[in-house]
Amino acid sequence: MKSLTSCLFAAAAMIASPVMAANSAANACRAQSPAHRVALLELYTSEGCSSCPPADQYVAGLRASGVTADHAVLLSEHVDYWNYIGWKDPYSRAAFTERQRWMSDLANSRTIYTPEIFMSGKELRSWTSGGVPAAVQRINGQAAQADISIALGAAGAGGLPVEVKASSARGGKLYVALVQSGVANQVTAGENRGRLLRHDFVVREWLEPVALAGGKDGAKNSAGIARTFMLPAGASNGNLGVSAFVQSEQGEVLQALALPVCGG
Asked: Are 180 and 240 contacting, i.e. CB atoms less than 8 angstroms apart?
């Protein structure tokens, strides 16, 4: 798997432009999306699901296998429909269950389940057999349909100031999330009772999406979000990041971007 991924992403790198706006220290907390489309990988998971830990580990290992932030934005979204069996997942949100259901409805599917992976708005069942690298490479070969920029202020006791801007001729909605890696939890009930579960790319804060609007006379539709995220207890700059993406009403992800918190 690793050698296949490395080969695929060596080829993808030839068409990729850097995500970061610049490498200087002055611009270390800013990012601008590239000309190619960055894939969005969403893992729907739960600590109450016994078949989910292998999927969590797989997604956590993608960066080491060569899937950089210039190739794909990774999100782990913990659903709440497993909470009834005795263990309440501390990272779960009803909003993630609703989002999973919405995307399944778009695909004319009547079933939602965990673990389930969506790649840029479409279900990817082949992830268990090595389908992620090929899907990411295919998406990277497409031109971006939206522009996104992220600017982060200094994280401190008052939180993390975040400013995200997006524009697209196709409209859509801008989504912004605070993401944390390196979290671990000792599960004491449910299907994973007695297990220490580790997670990366966990969505800790999920903002209400904002519609891109205002495009007239050939101008692009645009949107902006300025917010201060409160930091999760025990979090450090080194394991936090902000991710953003623009998605059409039909579910197509037009562009995605991720930026780690500076000073980690």
From this structure: yes
Closest CA to 256 of 74, 89, 83: 74
Is residue 187 a contact partner of residue 197, using CB atoms and an 8 Å limit? yes
Q: Which residues of 120-144 are buried (b: 16+ CB within 10 A; e: fewer)?
A: bbebbeebeeeebbebbbebbeeeb
pLDDT score for 28:
60
Joined together, the tokens standing for residue 124 give: 């990817």
The b-or-e profile of 185-221 (16+ CB within 10 A means b, else e) is bebeebbbeeeebebbbbbbbbbebeebeeeeeeeeb
Whether the pTM exceeds 0.70: the reply is yes
| Cα of 119 vs its chain's centroid, Å | 10
Contact 9, 69 (CB under 8 A): no
Q: What is the mean pLDDT of residues 124-145?
A: 95
CA distance 12 to 142: 11
Strand partners, 166: 148, 223
Helix (H) / strand (E) containing 10: helix 2-13
Q: Dihedrals φ, ψ of 239, to 5°? A: -120, 20
